[in-house]
TrEMBL record, chain A:
It is found in: Cell membrane. This is ABC transporter permease. It comes from the Bacteria. The keyword Transmembrane applies. The lineage of its organism: Bacteria, Bacillati, Bacillota, Bacilli, Bacillales. SUPFAM superfamilies: MetI-like (SSF161098). GO terms for cellular component: plasma membrane. CDD domains: TM_PBP2. InterPro entries: MetI-like (IPR000515), MetI-like_sf (IPR035906). Keywords: Cell membrane, Membrane, Transmembrane, Transmembrane helix, Transport. Gene3D superfamilies: MetI-like. It is a multi-pass membrane protein. It comes from Peribacillus deserti. The keyword S-adenosyl-L-methionine does not apply.
TrEMBL record, chain B:
GO terms for biological process: transmembrane transport. Keywords: Cell membrane, Membrane, Transmembrane, Transmembrane helix, Transport. It is a multi-pass membrane protein. Coiled coil: none annotated. Residues 75-289 form the ABC transmembrane type-1 domain. PROSITE patterns: ABC_TM1 (PS50928). It is found in: Cell membrane. It comes from Peribacillus deserti. This is Sugar ABC transporter permease. The chain crosses the membrane at residues 21-43, 81-100, 112-133, 159-183, 214-233, 268-288. Belongs to the binding-protein-dependent transport system permease family.
Length: 275, 299
């Protein structure tokens, strides 16, 4: 009996380790390539430790592609704005749907649930025309305003507030705080765990988004990093050392956030899982 | 008394709308409005030069679909992609979650590592894989080393879509794994203990307890998977530099919609019709899947 358990454990560990390798090898390979010289890349060795370790690729991409810092700024500015606005607006809407009484509330709630099922590709063409009409193509607001709420997270915040202890708000009301005061001073500070999970996913969604900026941003100056990366690849077709260096620069911020907040990631996914 | 309470209700209604107003504006302007607009567009020919103009063409856009070979190819590619990727990623996610949940040491470490692809942007992942899929790249070197045939992953029309499938199964399975993990922790231990008393082995416990207990979550994972896979775009676009090549083998419906809407002149209305049909396909798939798993509904 005991021996059998041992074999089972060994098998499970083998699966876990093999899959961990499958996950991590592409990243290590990319990282290693970003420190190799072009010669070494072309020679096609499969050594993970560079023979001649160089930081040259990282220097080159910032020199050759002057817009690189600009793309980083664009990505960061858009992602941070979208995240902050979402946190505020989704929570407000979720709170109203959970706690306040107003006509049409039920219809609105069902409407928001329905919107969850509509794929973004359907609204992509009309949104382009609307943004064009507003003169918002190639602008930050063109990327930020349409993305500043998210039906999934309105729904999530509503679920969160429905389960929120009512007594606190009632006490706040007795103390003379209005609905706004209660919301901003009592409810929001206590919603931190839900907000953190939401913030991470919205930030990543915006940071990694490819299709929307592809349609909204056509001036190279206004590109976000994923678009920039794609153009960069077009310019330096077989310079994989540069392309990998640029990819690593782009991935680093998300990995740093992940290193600090990984428990919120897991929580956030479970939230989306309807829990 | 009555007047006072109705006044209070009125104030609360006002506050409710105020709290909802940012969401309402965006919802109307950028989601509900565009949905109606896309239906309108799909019955019109749209000219973008100078002033935007719309000419009513009734069902022409939909009729055109019938003789459009590229649309058929895109539909077929997308269909193939969905049919293969959804079951594979669901199964992989389930196996990984069950293995992780077996109570071994180092669970947290493995979970953190497995989650990495989910964090990384589609653009970066696609570039990393294109580099590995290169003719002289890591994967071919490895295949060669093992004495297996090598492939031209990027240039061979028979292989390119499969290469994207493998990449995406690899990158989306961990996300669903985390959903499964959370659900696994909710299965009561007593069920397993009872099965053990009845002499069930590990595999039997997996098939007879874990899988049935996870059915509601599986149906959620499948729906999310369906919605996601039908929308394949980024990877195809970057893989083929926007063309859907080689030989239309990575052309997906969304990529075709993009091309007709933004890359060729005068076909925006036709693109809207395609997008509209895609939405209907996704909704239908979602509803069918929901119907199948209705009795154990999670919602």
């Amino acid at each position: 009996m005991k021996k059998k358990m041992g074999i089972g454990k060994l098998l499970l560990y083998t699966i876990l380790v093999l899959y961990a390798l499958t996950t991590i090898i592409p990243f290590l390979w990319a990282l290693s390539s970003s420190f190799k010289s072009l010669q070494e890349i072309v020679s096609g060795g499969i050594n993970f430790i560079p023979k001649n370790f160089t930081l040259g690729n990282y220097k080159t991409i910032f020199i050759e592609e002057e817009l690189f810092p600009r793309w980083m700024f664009n990505s960061l500015f858009i992602a941070v704005s979208v995240t902050l606005l979402n946190l505020l607006f989704n929570s407000m809407a979720g709170y109203a749907l959970a706690r306040l009484n107003f006509p049409g509330k039920k219809a609105l709630f069902i409407g928001i649930l329905g919107v969850l099922m509509i794929p973004a590709q359907v609204t992509m063409i009309p949104n382009y025309l609307i943004l064009k009409e507003l003169g918002w193509l190639n602008s930050y607001q063109g990327m930020i305003v349409p993305a500043m709420i998210n039906a999934t997270y309105i729904f999530m915040m509503r679920q969160f507030f429905v389960n929120f202890p009512k007594e606190l708000e009632e006490a706040a009301e007795l103390d003379g705080l209005g609905k706004f005061g209660t919301f901003f001073r009592i409810v929001m500070p206590l919603a931190k765990p839900a907000l953190a999970a939401q913030a991470i996913f919205i930030f990543m969604g915006s940071w990694n988004d490819f299709m929307r900026p592809l349609i909204v941003m056509t001036d190279a100056e206004m590109f976000t990093l994923p678009l920039g990366l794609n153009t960069f690849k077009g310019q330096f077709v077989s310079y994989w050392n540069y392309i990998m260096a640029a990819s690593m620069v782009f991935t680093l911020p998300v990995l740093v956030i992940y290193a600090f907040f990984n428990r919120y990631f897991i929580k956030g996914v479970s939230f989306t899982g309807g829990k | 008394m009555r007047g006072k309470s109705s006044k209070k209700a009125l104030r609360e209604a006002g506050q409710g709308f105020l709290f909802m107003s940012p969401a309402l504006v965006v919802l109307l302007l950028f989601i509900i409005g565009p949905i109606l607009f896309v239906v309108f567009l799909s019955f019109h020919k749209v000219q973008l030069l100078g002033n935007v103009s719309f000419d009513f063409v009734a069902f022409d856009n939909f009729k055109r679909l019938l003789d459009d070979t590229r649309a058929k190819i895109a539909l077929w590619n997308t269909f193939k992609y969905v049919i293969i990727v959804v079951p594979c990623q669901t199964l992989l996610a389930l196996i990984l979650a069950a293995t992780l949940n077996a109570g071994l040491k180092g669970q947290t470490f493995f979970r953190i590592v497995y989650f990495l692809p989910t964090l990384t942007s589609s653009a970066v992942l696609t570039l990393i894989f294109m580099w590995m899929y290169n003719k002289e790249g890591l994967i071919n070197k490895l295949l060669d080393f093992l004495g297996l045939p090598t492939y031209n992953f990027l240039g061979d029309p028979g292989i390119a879509l499969n290469a994207i499938m493998a990449m995406n199964i690899w990158s989306t399975a961990p996300f669903f794994m985390v959903i499964y993990l959370a659900a696994l922790q909710d299965i009561p231990d007593s069920l397993y203990e009872a099965a053990e008393l009845d002499g069930a082995n590990a595999l039997q416990k997996f098939w007879l307890i874990t899988v049935p207990q996870l059915r509601p979550v599986t149906s959620f994972v499948v729906i999310m998977g369906l919605i996601g896979t039908f929308q394949l775009f980024d990877q195809s676009y970057i893989f083929s530099a926007g063309s859907g090549g080689p030989d239309n083998s990575t052309l997906t419906v969304v990529l075709l919609v993009y091309q007709y809407a933004f890359k060729t002149l005068g076909t925006m209305g036709y693109a809207a019709a395609l997008a509209f049909l895609l939405a209907i396909v996704i909704l239908t798939a979602t509803l069918i899947q929901r119907k199948f798993s209705k009795e154990e509904s999670l919602y």
